[in-house]
Amino acid sequence: MRNESSLTRRHSLPYRTAYEIYAASVWLFASAYMAYLHAQHVMPREMSALLYMVCIVFAVKRGHEGWLILRDRSLLSGRRFELMPRSKLQTLMRPDHLWLGYGFVWEPKHTQKLHELSRINPASLMLPDFMHRFFGRGDQYQKNEEIGMPYIHGLEPNEIELHRFLKNFEGGTLILGTTQAGKGVALCNLFSQAVLRNDVVIFIDPKGSPRVYESFRKACTAAGRGEPLNYHPGNRDKTKGIRLDPLATFSTGAQIATRIMSVIPGKPDAFTQFAWSCIKTFADALIELKIKPSLKLLSKHINHGIDDLLRDLLLDRIERFASENWREEARSFMAPIKEGRLTESQEELLLMVSFYEHVLDKKEQTLVVDECLKVFHHSKEHYAKITASLMPIFAMLTSGPLGDSFSPDPKDSTDSRPIWNLESIILTRSCLYCHLDSLSDNMIASAVGSILLGDLVSVAGKRYNLGKTDIRISLFVDEASNVCNNPLIEILNKGAEGGIYTTVAMQTIADLAHRLGSQDAARMVLGNCNNLIALRCKDRPTQDFVTETFGKTYIHQVDTTLSTHADTHAGLPSFEGGASHKRTAVREEIIPSEYLGKLPNGQFFAFVGGGHLLKGHVPVITD
Ligand SMILES: Nc1ncnc2c1ncn2[C@@H]1O[C@H](COP(=O)(O)OP(=O)(O)OP(=O)(O)O)[C@@H](O)[C@H]1O
Ligand SMILES: [Mg+2]
Predict the structure, then answer these.
(1) Sorting pLDDT into bands at 50, 70 and 90, what band is 38?
(2) Residue 155: inside a domain, yes or no?
(3) Is residue 96 domain-shared with residue 232, that is, in the same domain?
(4) Can you give the residue ranges of the TraD/TraG TraM recognition site domain (predicted)?
(5) Contact, 617 vs 154, CB < 8 A?
(6) Which pLDDT tens digit goes with each residue over 571-587?
(7) Same domain assignment for residues 92 and 213
(8) Pick from 532, 454, 531: which is nearest to 490 by CA?
(9) Do 229 and 325 belong together in one domain?
């Protein structure tokens, strides 16, 4: 194997004028002259034949060297942004592998070449368009009007199909790229393969890109999986798309509370903790009463207070365990109530509470009723303050068209949309596209996305506990900085165990830091992704994150010094000269960060499978 250490790496300068072509022309001319001398009988036949052959051999050798220089210069014109028919994708896929695009494995020699190029003006080395045809690249090179520096992809002549083991992607994949860099194109490639692999595919698209949805739809129909389920929270048409029940899967009220509170980003504080326990109590009470909690129902009860639910729960205890004269027994523990201060039903409730707390056997008391009683006895002002802050969240999630589609009522005969939940979607191996429409309402998009991710964590957790990880779930979250919350972080951390392969795409780390409250929190989340695909990134913190992940390498620098010295002391001028050649190795970023900002559309650097660094480009899949 060739030693590629920085000091033994061959130092050549491929990016220069192809002087070898001149030399080859001279050798060709010399060979022609030998032939002429032979024709003129000036030279013996054997001699001229021998010299002719020598000239031809050197002409071919130098011509080939010159051709390689010109080919390397042609490659500097890069690869244009390509279109690829969907049918081709199937031929590129391999079992248990993921196809990332076309490209090459990035090695230190490519970093070396980049450094060589940074000393010169690459534009001066570009060949005229017609010359690319000589190298079989007549329609492949990047046109001048396209964004980005083409030469970054032109550092390696041999392009291959980039495959990685699917298992490498269990730990989450992050796609970073500025707007229009090709995040959508990269996601289309990845979800099209997931659809063809027969995974459950869930795409959360906060922006709601019609182009990406169309590609998703075509991927599903082309794979024979029919039309995908389409969820749009702002959809007023009760005949199109589906309704989603995000509270369908739960085992305790706590899970429901966590899901709803995931709408609020950032660290939990005293307010969020109290609000969480409040929702949990109401949800547990509904579950105890055998009523399925929905967002609308929870909103209604939290707004009205615990009295109604508590009354029903206590009634159940009384019906089962109270004697005929329970009222008298209960009243004996109560201070007399002034007449007219309370309504009849309030008085009755106080009696029931007294019965539960003082008369009922401890064995028959339940945790759910105890929790409800805590809310009942809690300061009314404080409770009102907390619920006043919770109400806008519920109002957001239950009003307008979202109310019908996100708290679906099976008895609503005016709504013909089918009701789905994530568990049924997974069991039937369906494909779901959530079109969250953040451009028209960012708050709602973010809230809906957060709750769905929370629901997915519950479903995955349940499946994991039951040992059912046979179905692979491919989750894609575009513009993830809009919906990033604790459930998403949990999915990135532990999703693989529940069979979830997550891919998140975002523009900058700053967006995520803004949502999570700090740069450190954002980096911690991104650190959970085992694989990184970096498209064109413009902002410095994002570039720094990417280059830190990629690591460093040694590159060598050659410093040449030439000196001349004229000494006139001796009476006669005496000239001295010197030349020195110094070669040093310096540790540099393997991908210098400024090049991340110069990548053309659809081109990426990928860090996958724990250290494999790839340079590639992904084509747009068309039909
Ligand atoms: N089907 C297509 N045909 C031709 N060009 C396309 C197609 N899809 C995407 N492109 C081009 O690919 C480039 C990247 O588009 P893409 O939608 O992937 O951007 P993005 O990174 O997702 O940007 P944004 O953050 O704005 O969503 C754009 O220049 C776009 O014009
Ligand atoms: Mg996009």
Answers:
(1) confident
(2) no
(3) yes
(4) 473-600
(5) no
(6) 666 778 888 878 788 88
(7) yes
(8) 454
(9) no
Pick from 113, 181, 149, 151: which is nearest to 533 by CA? Answer: 181
Closest ligand to 178 CA?
Answer: 1
pLDDT at 485: 78
Ligand 1 atom, smallest distance to 186 CA: 18
Closest of 265, 332, 291 to residue 489, by C-alpha: 265
Say how many residues make up the chain: 623
Handedness of CA 397, 403, 405, 409 (dihedral sign): positive
Q: Quick check: 589 and 515 in contact, CB under 8 A?
A: no
**Which ligand sits nearest to residue 179's alpha carbon?**
1
9 located within any domain? no
**Residue 408 belongs to a domain:** no
Are 529 and 581 in a shared domain? no
Report CA(183)–ligand 2 centroid distance (Å). 5
Q: What residues does ligand 1 touch, defined as CB less than 6 Å away?
A: 177, 179-185, 211, 507, 601, 620, 622
- Closest ligand 1 atom to the C-alpha of 182? 18
pLDDT digits (tens, 9 = 90+) for 558-571: 777 888 877 766 66
In a domain, 130, yes or no: no
Question: Which of 143, 183, 218 has most ligand 1 atoms within 8 Å of CB, for mutation?
Answer: 183
Together in a domain, 522 and 487: yes
Residue 341 domain boundaries: 253-403
Q: Which ligand has the minimum distance to the alpha carbon of residue 188?
A: 1
